[in-house]
From TrEMBL:
Organism: Grosmannia clavigera (strain kw1407 / UAMH 11150)
Biased composition annotated in UniProt, kind: Polar residues: 45-56
Domain Major facilitator superfamily (MFS) profile: 166-600
UniProt key word Transmembrane: yes
GO molecular function: transmembrane transporter activity
Stretches with biased composition (Low complexity): 10-23
Topology in membrane: Multi-pass membrane protein
InterPro entries: MFS, MFS_dom, MFS_trans_sf
Protein's UniProt name: Major facilitator superfamily transporter multidrug resistance
Length: 605
């Protein structure tokens, strides 16, 4: 049938003698290089051709095709010789991509060969296959895609300097928003005195309510970024963050402070929610570990450095300056981010290309290479996007189990924060400034854990990929997590019993370090796994994770006073230690069964 269709095509479209009417007719450009104009769009829309896959296969393997039998006659002309010689020139490719011609088909065939080569990279003499290639354009079938795997418009192919500057800016804002979440911790007693508060629940809530903002924010930020792009949504969230910081600094009473802290958390959820997906937008899987490691420093180091800084601020210039200083730094950081920020969502970039080509070519049949062909109303698309994070959290066993694990770790981190002032100010007689230094133990161990993961994560993945016959699986990210998971119970048993028996103050400080080290070794691989496993909906997968951990992080500290009042520091922390031991096998189970569940139709979202 394909051969018959080929024979029905007008010979004029394949004849070099009809250059005057041929869509590939040449005009001399200003640079002295050939350019092409006069495309017959009606012929392009009405033409019936075989699929791009068939054409590529025929071109590569040399099977008979009526069009390709005539290539010799065509290439005898100077015009097509010049065009083929410039096939790798982006300007020429962009001009001929919409032309239904033999040259276009041959270019597609060459692109297929290039993609096959790019799928395989040499590492230590063994071929390692990364199953990430870009969907290409096939305008004959109405599909708009990328020009090649090296298309500079795709975020993977951005200039490396541009990518790493963006990583630094996003990571800086992420650090600041999480830093703000805990900076008020050392000032709670001062705030209580100023506003006449005597409730321990309210005292805990003024700190943890910020995390409730992290629960609400991602439910809107993530899906909206998958529809409208990362750039406008992130800018809106960051502006909200700055506005509500101003409200915190000027809060006239405890109720207003709690409300403004909550709204600040909603805005601050921007980089927390989108940072990981931006790293996935910018880097392929084999390059993603380091970028994710840098970004993840913010959510983990920020909350530990916040109380350290806040202690000295409240002691010297007052608690309101916690927010004034955060606001000043936020304006500087967010302004810098906005200067360098660009859209990184490949689906949004491609949809904009579809819209542009539809107007330029007057074709309403064009669709994105990421489209599944379904025609949905705008309201339906928005609804599906808004419910996707919730569906992923409750209907995906991988996301649910890993999010619950991370939520527990995040929650007990904030629970530990609430115990540090009581332990070191009451038991050991530290002042507010010195108590803030205790948090430095967590910060230092976070950095050490980050260095270990950053160095060994990608190496471990590459090694496992080679052992798997050169095929990468996202579950390989989780291979190193059990070792780090075992560090958490060490802290709970050590810290709890040394604090209860009033061992020298250095011992409970040192006991915090295994927790910081282990927490980093869990956060980095798990968040990177979510990006690898759900590349198209990474923002929603990470939003589900952020919602779960923020909700537990906000609520668990409220149970702290009752827990320690009944069980004291020893058994209270031992309970947390036993729970953390029970959760160590979770990543192991995902490593073993994750691929099966991820590819099962039952769990498709």
């Amino acid at each position: 049938m394909d051969a018959a269709k080929s024979e029905q095509r007008p010979a004029s479209s394949l004849s070099s003698s009809s250059a005057a009417s041929d869509p590939l007719s040449k005009k001399e450009s200003r640079q002295g290089r050939p350019s092409y104009a006069g495309s017959d769009r009606n012929h392009l829309r009405g033409q019936s051709t075989r699929s791009a896959t068939d054409r590529t296969s025929l071109a590569i393997h040399g099977e008979p095709d009526h069009d390709y039998e005539q290539i010799g006659a065509i290439t005898a002309g100077h015009e097509l010789d010049v065009e083929l010689e410039n096939a790798y020139d982006r300007q020429v490719l962009e001009r001929i991509e919409s032309r239904s011609s033999v040259a276009y088909r041959l270019t597609q065939a060459l692109s297929a060969v290039s993609r096959a080569d790019k799928q395989t990279t040499e590492k230590d003499g063994q071929k390692t296959k990364w199953a990430e290639t870009l969907p290409l354009s096939d305008l004959d079938d109405g599909v708009v895609g990328w020009e090649s795997d090296e298309d500079p418009m795709h975020p993977w192919n951005f200039d490396p300097t541009k990518k790493w500057v963006l990583v630094a800016c996003v990571s800086g804002v992420t650090f600041l928003t999480t830093f703000t979440s805990s900076i008020l911790s050392p000032a709670v007693a001062t705030v209580d005195r100023q506003f006449g508060n005597t409730s321990t629940i309210i005292s805990s809530l003024v700190v943890s309510v910020y995390l409730l903002g992290y629960v609400l924010g991602p439910l809107f930020i993530a899906p909206l970024s998958e529809i409208y792009g990362r750039l406008p949504v992130l800018l809106t969230a960051n502006v909200m963050f700055c506005c509500w910081l101003l409200g915190c600094a000027l809060a006239p009473n405890m109720s207003a402070l709690i409300v403004f802290r909550f709204l600040t958390g909603v805005g601050g959820a921007g980089c927390m929610t989108l940072g990981g997906s931006i790293m996935g937008d910018l880097f392929r899987a084999e390059q993603r570990g380091l970028a994710m490691g840098i970004w993840n420093l913010g959510p983990l180091v920020g909350p530990t450095i916040g109380p350290l800084t806040g202690g000295f601020i409240v002691e010297n210039i007052g608690w309101r300056w916690d927010f004034w200083i955060c606001l000043i730094v936020a304006v500087a950081f967010i302004g810098t981010l906005q200067i360098f920020n660009v859209e990184t969502n490949a689906r949004v970039i491609m949809q904009r290309k579809v819209d542009r080509l539809s107007k330029e070519l007057n074709r309403s049949d064009l669709r994105s290479c990421y489209s599944n062909g379904a025609v949905l109303s705008g309201s339906r698309i928005l609804f599906n996007s808004l419910v996707r994070p919730v569906k992923m959290l409750f209907l995906s066993p991988m996301i649910l189990s890993l999010s619950m694990y991370i939520a527990f770790v995040y929650g007990v981190m904030y629970l530990l924060f609430t115990t540090i002032p009581g332990v070191f100010e009451v038991t050991y007689g530290f002042n507010v400034g010195l108590t803030g230094l205790v948090y430095l133990a967590l910060g230092i161990s976070n950095v050490v854990g980050w260095l270990v993961v950053a160095i060994y994560s990608d190496k471990s993945v590459i090694s496992l990929t080679k052992a798997n016959g050169g095929k990468f699986e996202p579950e390989m990210r989780l291979a190193i997590t059990p070792f780090f998971g075992l560090c958490l119970p060490i802290t709970f048993f050590w810290y709890g019993w040394t604090a209860q028996y009033k061992v020298h103050w250095m011992s409970p400080i040192m006991s915090l370090m295994p927790f910081g080290f282990g927490m980093m070794g869990l956060f980095l691989p798990i968040t990177t796994y979510l990006v690898d496993a759900y590349p198209m909906y990474a923002a929603s997968a990470l939003a589900a994770n952020v919602v779960a951990r923020s909700l537990v992080g906000a609520m668990l500290p409220l149970a702290g006073p009752t827990l320690y009042a009944n069980l004291n520091y020893g058994w209270g922390n031992s309970v947390l230690g036993f729970i953390s031991i029970a959760m160590v096998p979770v990543p192991l189970l995902i490593t073993k069964f994750g691929k099966r569940m991820r590819t099962s139709q039952k769990f498709q979202l």
